[in-house]
Amino acid sequence: MNIAEKMVPQRAEASISGYIFITLCLLPLLFLISCENNIDKVNLITATDKTPLQTEENATYTYTDSAKVRFVLKAPLINTFGGKNPYQECPKGMNVDFYDDSGHVTSHINSDYAIRHENSKIMEADGNVVVVNKKNEKLNTEQLFWDQSRHTIYTSKYVQIRTATEILYGDGLQSNEDFSHYILTNIRGTVQLNNPAQ
């Protein structure tokens, strides 16, 4: 066997080794490229950034139960976000009207900002929060939580409630969602109105 014949197997062995090396290097890259669309889908589902999945202007949502309207939410802008904890945000404020079984408005909530967490069904209203019930009693506070599942509203912030005869001041409140039965958790004071008609 001459020198040339001895070199041929070595060249073939070197070529096979080089092929395996290149394949091992390119395999992860090919895997990433092939999974690009799947990764995009996963990122969409588990999005944690501040890019909304949907934006709606002048939005109106009507919630019904047993073929009856329970509340109507209106907002100039609603942004919907995905991920493990999806939520809707009303950065320009919102207002909600609650209805009784006869279709009459029982109470009203409005605020400068609101965020509703889909999993917990809890909405947080912030900034100039006002609640008015059918007796025309008015609640003012800076933060209010509305639990849709329990049909309650509550806050631990400073509150002011104006009725036909007095103004109540306190820290914290719990109430049913139509604001017809409420409890101040820490009353600061009460002012009797001299002219209840005003």
Care to give the gist of this entry?
The protein has two helices and twelve strands; from the N terminus they run ααββββββββββββ. The protein is of the alpha+beta class. It has two domains: 3-34; 54-192, Sandwich (lipopolysaccharide transport protein A fold).
**For the terminal residues, how far apart are their CA atoms?**
118 Å
How many DSSP-defined strands? 12
Total discrete domains: 2
CATH class of the largest domain: Mainly Beta
Write the CATH architecture name of the largest domain.
Sandwich
Q: CATH superfamily assignment of the largest domain?
A: Lipopolysaccharide (LPS) transport protein A like domain
Oligomer: single chain
Structure report:
The chain is of the alpha+beta class and 198 residues long. It folds into 2 domains: 3-34; 54-192, Lipopolysaccharide (LPS) transport protein A like domain (lipopolysaccharide transport protein A fold, Sandwich), CATH 2.60.450. It has helices spanning 3-34, 36-45, and strands at 54-65, 68-81, 87-90, 94-99, 105-111, 113-117, 122-133, 138-147, 152-162, 166-176, 182-184, 187-192. A hairpin with a 5-residue loop joins strand 4 and strand 5 (105-111). The protein is globular, with a radius of gyration of 31 Å. The relative contact order is 0.08. The model is unreliable at 1-14, 21-37 and 39-43 (pLDDT under 50).
Give the helices and strands, then pairings.
Layout (H helix, E strand, L loop, with lengths): L2 H32 L1 H10 L8 E12 L2 E14 L5 E4 L3 E6 L5 E7 L1 E5 L4 E12 L4 E10 L4 E11 L3 E11 L5 E3 L2 E6 L6
Antiparallel strand pairs: 1-2, 2-3, 2-4, 3-6, 4-5, 5-7, 6-7, 7-8, 8-9, 9-10, 10-11, 10-12
